[in-house]
Design goal:
- By secondary structure, the protein is α/β, with parallel strands linked by helices.
- Helices cover 49% and strands 14% of the residues.
- It contains ten helices and six strands, in the order αβαβαβααααβααββα.
- It has a six-stranded mixed sheet.
- Helix 3 links the parallel strand 2 and strand 3.
- Helix 2 crosses helix 3, helix 4 packs across helix 6 and helix 7 crosses helix 8.
Length: 249
């Protein structure tokens, strides 16, 4: 059966969902790659030289997406291809979610002062963040957030549909649609898109979310009729280069 479908798969476009490099979790400006995050993206670009280079790319509109793209192509030693910024690939607003969970954390200094009391401040912050996200996901407080969980899901799926529609239109009108497309985005949109394609429920989707490493690659295949998952959360470029580069946030 695999041999029957293999030629058909070769005709499908490849869509690589690339999670951004490590950002500055727990810092005043989270939306900035750490030194490790920059290196992760560079190493990913270096490793990509052994496979077909993306000829088209999309990014979310966040700085960490743009920086990941820049370091990736620097590591790849290739000129940047045509790239479209699409805010549909942006992460959810983690600051809003934390503030709605605990209004006293509206000021960054107040939040850091709270967690500095713990023996492991970063772990305490991570635990609180998970609880805040659970509150957001519950559906009981949707009207309190700038963007509810259902709205976030719709936005991410719409971004995927926009991309596929645009690429299919290019193929129909010019015959030159990209066959290798990179999307520089975040864990949340990757989780939503995977859940949408695989038909997963919320709990199953966020079980995947917990496993996503920084600069991991998830590959989808698509054409005018179908979309499927080829692989998920590949971070072998980090394990093969230096396991110390592996991170979750």
């Amino acid at each position: 059966m695999q041999d029957i479908f293999y030629p058909y798969l070769l005709l499908m476009a490849a869509l690589y969902l690339i999670r951004h490099g490590q950002a500055s979790f727990g810092q005043a400006d989270y939306d900035l790659l750490s030194e490790k995050g920059q290196q992760q993206a560079f190493v990913l670009g270096q490793s990509w030289s052994r496979q077909q280079v993306p000829t088209f790319c999309y990014t979310g509109s966040l700085l960490r997406h743009e920086q990941t793209k820049q370091h990736f192509y620097h590591g790849l030693n290739q000129a940047l291809p045509h790239c479209i910024s699409h805010s549909g690939f942006n992460e959810f607003d983690h600051q809003d979610i934390l503030i709605k969970y605990q209004p006293k954390w509206r000021r960054f200094n107040d939040m850091t002062a709270h967690f500095d009391q713990f023996d492991e401040p970063k772990k305490a912050l991570a635990d609180a963040f998970e609880q805040a996200v659970e509150r957001w996901l519950s559906g009981e407080y949707d009207d309190q957030y700038k963007e509810s969980w259902p709205s976030f899901k719709r936005r991410c799926v719409q971004a995927l549909n926009d991309l596929i529609k645009q690429q299919n239109h290019l193929k129909q009108t010019t015959g030159n649609a990209a066959q290798e497309i990179a999307v520089f985005t975040s864990a949340g949109p990757i989780t939503v898109i995977l859940s949408h394609v695989l038909g997963l429920n919320r709990a199953q989707g966020f079980a995947l979310n917990q496993q996503l490493r920084n600069t991991s690659v998830t590959k989808l295949l698509f054409d005018e009729q179908r979309i499927s998952v080829d692989f998920y959360n590949n971070y072998s470029h980090l394990t093969q280069h230096d396991a110390e580069l592996i991170s979750f946030r």
